[in-house]
Amino acid sequence: MSPHSHADTTTPPAPVPPPGSRTAEGTHLMHRSLKVEPAMVESASRLTLHLSDGRAVLDACGGAAVAIIGHGNDEVAKAMARQAARVSYVHTQSYTTPAAEDLANFLLEGSPHGLEKAFFVCSGSEAVEAALKLARQYFYEKGETQRVHFVSRKQSYHGNTMGSLSVSSNLARKVPYQDFGYQHVSHVSPAYAYRYKRDGETMEDFTTRLLEELETEFLSVGPSRVIAFIAEPVGGATAGCLPPPPGYLRGVRALCDKYGILLILDEIMCGTGRCGTYFAFEQEDGVTPDLVTVAKGLGGGYCSIAAVLAHKRVVDVLRRGTSSFNHGHTYQAHPIACATALAVQTIVRRDGLVARCAAMGRLLEAKLRAALAGCPSVGDVRGRGLFWAVEFVRDRETKETFDPAVTFGIKVQQTAFEGGVAIYPGWTTVDGTKGDHILLAPPFTVTEEELDTIVRVLKEAITTQERIHM
């Protein structure tokens, strides 16, 4: 991330630009901020971004947990070029391509976890939108047309189109669009132990309470009106790398089965190996989602691609009914995107990068915990694989947050950027109004030496801001 690009969260008042930044007035490109133009990246290779001012920046967050194999991979570039030379585009109403078929077959070889069909689109938001519509059509085909409601979680993020934003709970992003989205949505507590587990409560007790709350919500809405429960198996950018407590996902699956409700697991940020297993939900036995959304790591940043992966039980209902999915996009299953994603995923599988992600993740965790143990602003260090967050507090004992006006996490990000390391900032972490964190999600190809640099620069950035604000 550059010091002024904030993916998956709403931009706060623009911070003062560092020396050398340009204003955004002289360009016709609509940037995220109309005041400050982002840093210009001239080229990138492996983990290094080369800026137009001559600086080199280590990409410790993969952009937005996207660049799983790093930048500038020649094998992927050649696959893109080959596909462009063969066929660059066809419309899926009439045609398919080997690239799209091969990617789907590669991802779903042997129907892992019962997942049978892949529907390829261009972004994570589109994938969630498609999953919501597919879930609704599933019940429409079954004649259960009264099912119109979705249950989601607070401090969640599922996308920025109107349907995906409606099931999200990133409050700041929704401010201009109140009463503008899908209304049949409710939200329950997040699986956020650091903030939501009560004093004296065990993790088992916390899991039980979360599941009881979810069941109560199903009953309050009326189970026969609920289409699906949607959740990130490991929470993403809004609250920062939240692993669920033991037994939570398994309990959610059991509740959905009890009431005939679908389970949508959003793995756009935490999936495709990012948490140390290919699917993040695989780390809890007995969890089989009905629909899974994947995106960021699918194309590794080399193309715009995302997917909904559908379980056989969902597809079978459509087969017995209309035999079609009543949804589509001009650029779905785009052949260049599919060929590119297949090249990325081939490298991930061939080179054992998911296992490498798990191993390097254990190393990163150890280094973070050792380096940051003495930082008074570090309240929590959490994550899985190469997906880690540091949550900041003004007081460790009380977990008091910094005043939002301080923008502590953003200032840590800016300081780290000036030190040559790009990290991912988050704010309104706790409840949509307050709290700060940063997120680390380097490519799976990161070396131990690079991890050392990332952790060293991060600690220096934190201690710099502690001297100013504590």
TrEMBL record:
Keywords: Aminotransferase, Pyridoxal phosphate, Transferase. It holds the Pfam family Aminotran_3. Its cofactor is pyridoxal 5'-phosphate. Residues 1-25 are annotated as: Disordered. It comes from the Eukaryota. One of its GO terms (cellular component) is cytosol. Signal peptide: none annotated. InterPro entries: Aminotrans_3 (IPR005814), Aminotrans_3_PPA_site (IPR049704), PyrdxlP-dep_Trfase (IPR015424), PyrdxlP-dep_Trfase_major (IPR015421), PyrdxlP-dep_Trfase_small (IPR015422). GO terms for molecular function: pyridoxal phosphate binding; transaminase activity. PANTHER family: AMINOTRANSFERASE, AMINOTRANSFERASE CLASS-III. Belongs to the class-III pyridoxal-phosphate-dependent aminotransferase family. This is Aminotransferase class-III. It comes from Cordyceps fumosorosea (strain ARSEF 2679). The lineage of its organism: Eukaryota, Fungi, Dikarya, Ascomycota, Pezizomycotina.
